[in-house]
Every structure is written in structure tokens, then in C-alpha cells.
Amino acid sequence: MRIAIIGGGIGGLATAACLKQASVDVTVYEKAALYARVGLGLLLLPNGMEALDQIGLGNRARELARPLDLAVLRRPDATFVKCMTLEHHLGIVRADLTELLTEGVPRETIRHSHELKTLTQTEDCVRLEFQEQDPVEVDFAIAADGVHSACRRSLFPDWRPAESRIRELVSVCHAPDLAAVLDRTFMKILSEEGGLAAGIVPSQRGRIIWFIQYDGRRFMDLPTTPKSRRRFAERLVGDWKEPIGELVDRTDFGTSYVWRTVAPTEPAPMHAGRVALVGDSAHPMPTLTSQGANTALKDGVTVAEELLAAFETGSDPVEALARYDRIRRPRIAEILRGGVRLVDDFLDPNQETSRPIPLVH
Ligand SMILES: Cc1cc2nc3c(=O)[nH]c(=O)nc-3n(C[C@H](O)[C@H](O)[C@H](O)COP(=O)(O)OP(=O)(O)OC[C@H]3O[C@@H](n4cnc5c(N)ncnc54)[C@H](O)[C@@H]3O)c2cc1C
Predict the structure, then answer these.
(1) How far apart are alpha carbons 259 and 211 in whole angstroms?
(2) Which atom of ligand 1 is nearest to the CA of 292?
(3) What domains are there in the chain, each with its CATH number?
(4) Model pLDDT for residues 49-69, shown as the tens digit of each residue
(5) Nearest C-alpha to atom 10 of ligand 1 is from which residue?
(6) Model pTM?
(7) Which residues line ligand 1 (CB under 6 A)?
(8) pLDDT in tens, 19-53
(9) Nearest Cα to 360, choosing from 343, 338, 331, 334?
(10) Exposed, middle or buried by CB within 10 Å (0-12, 13-18, 19+), for 318?
């Protein structure tokens, strides 16, 4: 039984690590020639941690990341709005998470420089055509090729999510003194008129992951150089009270990243015949949910476990993929609905009701 995973990002590696625990013949086809330390940081939430525990990597993640036990909501003038205790939340640098997941997958399992062009299937097999590489035929395929998924385009050409209005300028600042003060607190600062927020996630080794979320229609310019990113950050939040002002001053914007996301209100189908879709390929998440990496981890582990159970009992693997879709799609739809509520509150806060803590569980 040969299984191909297209895309060796967070969801693809989690799927491979889970299948590898049972010595299944699996190959990951990854477009990139090698793993660059791209992406900055993210929040691991309880569902992502549960998935990491299921593949035996949870404790290593706890070593690499910083536990967070409090979420605090503030206004730009530093006045307190509300707080919430957190359990099983961690701040992690994205590259550390990718490196951790590759530890669970033997090196020879990953074929780099394999960019999928098209995916087709018959009743018996899945055929993968790559850019400048020989085609491959396998029994089953897992589409994990991210937000611009070529697999999804092949399977569901009409499913095209609109671009989200919300963009995020993500940075990492090395500031051990500030990280020590923040300790285990995830801080979110929301402008009262809406359309602008900042978030701070302390991580390990004195690093602080922080981000500015902004309405891309209201704040039109998309900064492309370190200097323009600094000016943009100063214009948006430079006069916000500590620690935001200090983070702006001390951040090297050369490594910052503007994250543009799409915003579906419903996930794509997560299964078609011999193919299952995991993570962003099926459901890019609104940035405000902090669920992109976490749902990708949970999808990967769920689809792998369903397949392994079918192999073990001799039942139909195609039915296992359909069951995966039935388990995950309603849950993903629920998270997306939570995301829509957060986006609405972010763009147009209702002054009558209390602002929600921007996390979706
Ligand atoms: C560069 C980057 C930075 C990010 N930064 C943050 C962040 O700071 N905070 C946060 O919360 N979230 C961030 N995200 C989003 C979050 O990481 C994703 O929601 C999460 O990784 C989803 O996992 P995934 O496996 O579905 O997709 P990804 O982790 O994006 O993995 C997709 C993989 O597929 C590969 N691929 C793409 N097309 C093909 C193809 N045609 N053939 C073969 N391989 C292909 C890609 O190279 C990539 O390795 C970032 C995403 C990216 C891509």
C-alpha cells in the first residue's frame, strides 16, 4: 500500500509522522528544495498539543516552546479589559515546530524539489504529475500543500476562497528582559474603533513573537522593505503604551513577514475518492483564530489514524478517508464560524457587548 503526501509543511509532516509509527510505505513530496526557516511564530492550542502528544512529540514541543497560562486583553493606553486563564497553550517559533515534526519522519521519506502540478485519480490509483520530475502512481494521496493547494485546484477547481481583509505583520524580537516581564502571558491589545490590534506571544530563549493585525482596506500600503515595515508599524501602533512602543523600537523588521490570508466561511470537501485534504489545502483559517497550524496538526493525525485502523482491520481505506471527512469537516466549520465572529468584532466592534478574547477553541 503506497501513500503519497503532497506538501511537507505542518499538516503533511504530522500525517507522515503518525503513519510512520506503523511502518506504512509513505513518501512526502515537497516543493521546496530544502527547509528554510520561514514563518515566524504561532500559538499551539490544546487541539494542536493533543495531536503532537498522539504522535509522541508533545513533550519535545513543551521543551522548545513557552507555556502560556494567561490571556490578557488591553486597550492601546494599557488599560485592562479582561483576562482568561489558559491551559495547554504554548508560544513556539514556526521553524522550531517544523524541525520538531521532521524528527518524527525518516529523512529518506521526504522528496524535496517535487512541485505537484496536477493530481488525477481512477478507481484504483492516484496519479501525481510534477514540475520537472517523473510522474508517480500511488494507492492513496494526502493533499497537504497549503493555502494555494494544487491538489485542491485539481479536485475542486471551483472552490476559490476570497482574500481576507485582515493582514498581519508578524515579527520576532529578541528581548529577554521583556520576555521575562511577560512571563507566561499572551497579550492582545485591541483598538477601540476596530480594524487594528497587536498581539504578543513570549517564546523560549528570550524571543517575543509579536504581530500587528490590520484591516487591509483601511491601511492600504503593504510594506515590502524593512524600512517601510518599520515606518508602517510606527504609524499604526508606535504611540501605543508599553510594551508595544518598545517592541517597535527594538525589532529587526528585516525578518518580519506580512501574512495575507484567505477567508473561507466553509471548508472545502476534505475527501474525494482516494485523496484526503488536510490543513490549509482544505480550510485556510482566518488569522484571528490562531488555528491554522493547530487544525493542520489535528487533521493530519486524524486522517492517519483512520487509515491505520482500516489497514489493521482490513476494512476499506476509501471509507476511512470518507469517515475522516465526516469527523473533521463539522469541527472545522464550527471553528470557521468562530473565526467569522472574531473578524466581525475586529472590523466593527459592538460597543454594547464585551470584546471576546481572540482565540477559537
Ligand atoms: C511562510 C509561512 C509563514 C507562516 N507564518 C505563520 C505565523 O507566523 N503564525 C501563524 O499562526 N501561522 C503562520 N502561517 C500559517 C500556518 O503556518 C499554516 O496555517 C499551517 O502551517 C497550515 O499547515 P499546512 O500543512 O496546511 O500548510 P503549510 O505548513 O503551509 O505547508 C504546505 C507545504 O506544502 C508545500 N507545497 C505547496 N505547494 C506545493 C506543491 N504544489 N507541491 C508540493 N509541495 C507544495 C509548501 O512548500 C509547504 O511546505 C504561515 C504559513 C506560511 C506558509
Answers:
(1) 10
(2) 19
(3) 2-39+95-161+264-344 (3.50.50.60)
(4) 999 999 999 999 999 998 999
(5) 42
(6) 0.92
(7) 6-12, 29-32, 38-42, 94, 114-116, 144-146, 150, 170, 259, 279-281, 285, 290, 292-293, 296
(8) 998 888 999 999 999 876 655 788 999 999 999 99
(9) 338
(10) middle
